[in-house]
Batch of 4 targets.
Target 1
Amino acid sequence: MNKARDKAAAPDAGRRAPTGGPGATVAQRLDGLPLTRLHGAILAVCTFGFFTDVAEVALGNALAAIFTAPPHSMARASLSLLLASVFAGGAVGAPVFGMLGDRIGRRRALQASLVLMALGSLAAALSPDLASLTLARAVSGFAIGGFPPLAATYLTDVMPPRRRGAMLLACTGLGSLGGAAVVGLVYALTPAPPLGVEAWRWALGLGTVLALLGAVLFGPMPESPRWLAAVGRGAEADRACRRFEAAARIAPPDASDGPAPAPGGPARAGFGALLADAAQRRRTGWFVVLYGVAPWATLGFPLLSAVVMLQKGFRVDQSLVFGALSLLGPPLGTTLTALVVDRLERRACLVALAAAMAGLGTVFAAGSSFPVLVLAGIAFNTAASTYGGILAIHATELLPTAVRASALACAWAGGRVSAALAPIVLLPILAAHGAHAMFGVITLALVLSGLLLLGGPRGLSGRTVA
């Protein structure tokens, strides 16, 4: 149906893209296109999947508050393992799905991650005890770790350079509504759970449905023409590229010209190509460290802020309200930043956001007033979400097509390892030394992030990618 609609626009096409003449590569043809409804459909489906992914991660915040308080009163060690299980699964899943993205294609790998996410959510919703819940959350994490880098890779492959950053950040901003939605759902259902089933189980059941729906929605989307061309599947790349050209009402090159090969011929793809190139190994290693440092702040705060609220003397219901409200800022702030991000230098933005988070964390640690804590939480989570979105843009722009998914997924896996360790390390620090000590660790991570960024390359805002 989508193909028919795209082709229907073709008879009205009377002009060529500036780079769409004979001999143009698939990459040149894609980069010369304006935004179309097909681009919009891809963005919408990626955002829907990211919404589901973020909701699954944010559910950990609600679980932390619920299982810390009576009647559960879960031991700190058990709670730490439950919270860490999602990120431990992601550390393994991210490189696996990254390899799949470079080997079998972006679209099919995205579908596979959503199907596995649905299975993990269903198992968690039906779990009879803590051990099975922890294991199910690890399975969900395996898929959760794979989706964001794959979605960022897919969007980078197909979006026009002048709007690439905006599209990735819009996906991040709108998708992050999933965090507020799931915490709000748990809060709304907790006083009188339907059928006597606990609210968090309903949230996981809904996550199952959303993940399966996302997998179905990816079915009609085109595969990345840039990836197809990079791995030597020229005829398929040409057909996929023609869908974008038809959606833009731009005549493709004459079929007699044949698809232009990628410069240098088909590239090796996946981890084999990544390991064979010393420059790419160094670049990937730099991003692995950056992604490994970031979660101590960007995920450590939203994951444990509800526990900090309880330690400050607030009730469980107040902590859940705080959790939901503090997650409202990221969608708005990140989406507004998308309007200007393609006119900003990536590295400078990231350093400024790291500095802002350090200051806001200090305010939160010292605060005692509920309104002040909510405002600090909203601002911190907004900065953290924007930081994560721009870091993904920065990485995908600097990594070449043939290894983009594998390299970004390796970096993402480094982040999942840190995210798994963060609650295990930060919860005992919070319990023994208080919020100031915990936020001291978070501030140290942010300072290290700023130093790493200042020593690294500038971004490719508005320019073509390799």
Target 2
Amino acid sequence: MTQLMKNICFALCMCLLAQAPTALASDHSKHKASSQMPSSACTAGMMACAKTISSVVDKHGRIWSTWSHRQHLYLNYSDDVGQSYSTPMRVNQVAEKISTRGENRPKIGADEHGNIYLSWVTPLSKRFTANVRFSYFSISKKQFSVPVTINNDNLLTGHSFNEMVVTQAGDVYIAWLDGRAKVAAAKQGIRLRSSEIYLAHANFEQGKNVFDNNYLAKGTCVCCRLAMGLDNRELPMLMWRHVFGDNYRDHGFLTMKNQAQANPMQRVSFENWQVNGCPHQGPSIVKGGDDRVHMSWFNNADDASGLFYGYSDDNGRSMSNTYHFATKANNPEHPFLSRGAASAQSGGMIQLVWREYNGKAFVIKYLKSIRGDNWESERVVATAQQGVDYPYILQHPSGSYLHWHVVGEPLALIKL
């Protein structure tokens, strides 16, 4: 067999692997009907027509939401917990492609002054290539900054699955899966099948207006979202699907020494899922009110398939026993962790939502625990037959809310 034929066969196999729900628990949203609202009924910037919506609660309880429609990013807000919304504002005046997939959606953050920060991915001309983009809304000037590209390598390669965290003091951190090492390796006749993680930082309140680019880790899976949070020093911590050994796709975790340098990676999941393909299932993390870091993830090993939870009290150097809270039977996917308001118990309330598909409808399930040691019984908090976005939790002064979006319907906030 010629090398060309080998390459073609490999590509076809990868395609089939990525589409096989039993092997890789693919995104079931690909199998549902498209939108519940006809495209002809969608006007420019209509929130209900968005495939994905991302939201954040600012210091004063205002809920800001962003979404993409017809190559423009939009922003609005609600002051009454989703009962009404402001008129949408267009972020990018010049149209550009914007990724709206569930794992690769626009991101949003807020600082203590009420400034809003937005990051998204713009696909480029070649398949699997993109740039990470950014703009912010100045609450005092009531205007958006001109969108800029965050990755500074000027290469036609992958820069994608961006995540963003913003501190109250206005430090903006954006991390992504980066392909610049692939370009360098290709020049030497080497084909890399993994990517790297880069981190950018800026602070517009303090006059740091240009994002740096700092390498953090290599050997990452190329097609799963990152998870980001802030530690007790308000520095980023990251979790991601990593390629260990002979294609064991478990998870790595790291914290930062400072704003630009990372501590060594720690392996934090051990299901030993061996697969040469793209799971499209990223993890979730949240910091407790103490030193505990809570983690949740998907894996599909032969003897360990479904959703898992664990925690670490020493930044990933050791892990708790794993809680296998959702098994393969109902196609569980995309867990999201959040920490509720502080309670009398140290560490506060830990909350967890995820999506399941029972063959007829999508179901959002919910769990909660004090510090992650013991979990209450799960309960169903939302269900719909089609068009269901991934579940998230918003922490608002009035309580915890499920961020519930069904394509063609208004964004709903369901109190948990």
Target 3
Amino acid sequence: MSNAFKIVTGYTGEPHVTAQQDRYINQGAFGTGCVVLPAGNQLALEIVSATQLVLHDGALSMQGCVGAMDTGAYITIDVSHGTTGYNRIDYLCVRYENNNGIESMSFVVREGVGSTGTPTPPSYTAGTISAGDIVVEAPVWRINIDGLSVSSVARVANVVSSQPQIEQLLAAYTELLAGKAFMLDFNSGDSVNTARTVLALRDTFLFKGYGTFSQDVLGLATQQQAFGIGFKNSSSAMVLLSICGGKMYYCQYSNTGAGTIYNPLVLTSNVE
């Protein structure tokens, strides 16, 4: 039997950990694509002039290959002028290179072609690091050029969640699977009206129900069907944004029966 399987995180008496072994570990944590790590300024891209941007500090993983900028560091990114009446899409790409075994990472701008209609994103050098490709690129930011200058930027490489964030999401999902999406009782005078929750994650919830609100809570002459979103401040108080009877209401409410009503807005056809 060949000894192809080797220890990585262990002492062998000689240097033995390779970059590819480390990349395998990172792939297990961050995936095999290109993602920004939740650290530093998360490689934020700031527009500073018509053709100049600043990439702030942070780190990313491309196919498990991690690159980073120290805290407070930044890179100035220059893009070419556009053309009046034309739109263009550029990509800010991270570039991996292997020059005779010496590996490096940097950022390059890949420029698209201007169009009077919908522009096409530019091409870049895709590849697989573990397969031995000497140049591999992946887009990190999309740069939109409207006319002569940069109009906006948008992330292409998403920011991955940290372990604590993942644990919170899993805990909330587990609560939903266990049927622990809470029911909410709103006291209205002497009567109790229940909003049946359709989705609840921690203190934020969506609700709907008939006869949920009465006059002393939302100023309705009669109880009507309502739906909306809410935030549970504590065990006895919450904030609600509700659509009911053709109006939109924002109120703070306590289950003691006390409600503070804010001016209802009559919904019209042009409300988006």
Target 4
Amino acid sequence: MRNLSLKLGALACALAAAVAVPVPAAAQTGAFLRLAHLSPDTPSVDVTVSPFGTAEGSQVVKGVGYGDVSEYQRIEPGTYTIAMRPAGADPKTDPVISATLDATDGRAYTVAGLGKFASLALRVLDDDISLPPAGQARMRVVNAAPLAGELSIRRDDASVIEGAAFGDASPYTVVPAGKATLTVAPVDASPSKLPVNLEAGGVYTILVLQREGVLSAAVRQDARGAAVVPHGAVETGFGGTADSGLGLGVLLLACAAAAGGVLVLAMRRRRVA
């Protein structure tokens, strides 16, 4: 379980912007992991990734806030424990929540804090980075916006995804590649148009977020031609327009400040409850 190789310092940057470059096929050995904080009312957290059963080789990502999604990092196949604690907490204290990841060679995973704070869950999402059929792309949605209710996604006039519940990830669906307009339709809010350019052989995740009552959508390219894309996202507010060049993508990764004393206390109370 040595060489955990989780250099996730990007989550601590104020704002990073980089052109997405896929990991070459020759380097696609091992498994790939990224971390996400997608619980809108949960304070910032520190996330620890450890080989199962030992603290040796653990990596800590500090100050992860709502909407933060790390780039993929390569890890050795095996079993890992992922734990969340209040930002600034002693890493020896009990985590608020934790999950176990059984990482398989050649697979990719997103471990995300999902749902509201009162029912916070740390979910292991299987990211399907396999090559879509010729001329096609693959897409799913992660609903991290409680105001949205269940989401539906249409590509031009065709239904793509239906009933994507808050705090959950929809199954992947295969869609024609090329330029299109996605309609993101929440149950309890007005629909929004999202121009995209889906590359043939690309795999995409649409994140629907909510900040201060305002919904936004972020489209991430997870893989291109069965090679993981380390980072790439374009975010647009509902009612706005996205960059049409989403095939390349730019990482928008905002660093969250350490949680204040009141928020940390709230998380500690939840741990005790």
